[in-house]
Amino acid sequence: xxxxxxxxxxxxxxxxxxxxxxxxxxxxxxxxxxxxxxxxxxxxxxxxxxxxxxxxxxxxxxxxxxxxxxxxxxxxxxxxxxxxxxxxxxxxxxxxxxxxxxxxxxxxxxxxxxxxxxxxxxxxxxxxxxxxxxxxxxxxxx
Length: 142
Known about the structure:
- The protein is 77% helix and 4% strand.
- Helix 2 (11-47) packs across helix 5 and helix 4 (62-90) packs antiparallel against helix 5 (101-134).
- The chain has one domain (9-132).
- A hairpin with a 2-residue loop joins strand 1 and strand 2 (60-61).
- The chain has helices at residues 2-7, 11-47, 50-53, 62-90, 101-134, and strands at residues 55-57, 60-61.
- It is mainly alpha-helical.
- It is flat and about 60 Å long.
């Protein structure tokens, strides 16, 4: 009986390892956000427009805001087109027409997939704004 309990790993090292991996993944996401924000700021500098380089608040420039709005617009158009396409091809689940299992499956997953696209697309599009706010030094108000 004691040999069976001694062979089981304690949950503490597993939890610590999981926390380390989560911290490493958050670090990678932050570095990606920093690189993306620097790329957007580089585009603003290359354009030569003082308006695009002007700060709106904290470290968020007009170029970052316009990039976020443009990305959200693209995500909205893409998900709208996807929903329209699936509804047109697969129809509605409540329809009285004869439907194949593929059409029913497509009709059933279209809205969850569109929601997933909005969540991921929204996260990626808002990353430059969040990075601009979150990257400010601690204790400074601007």
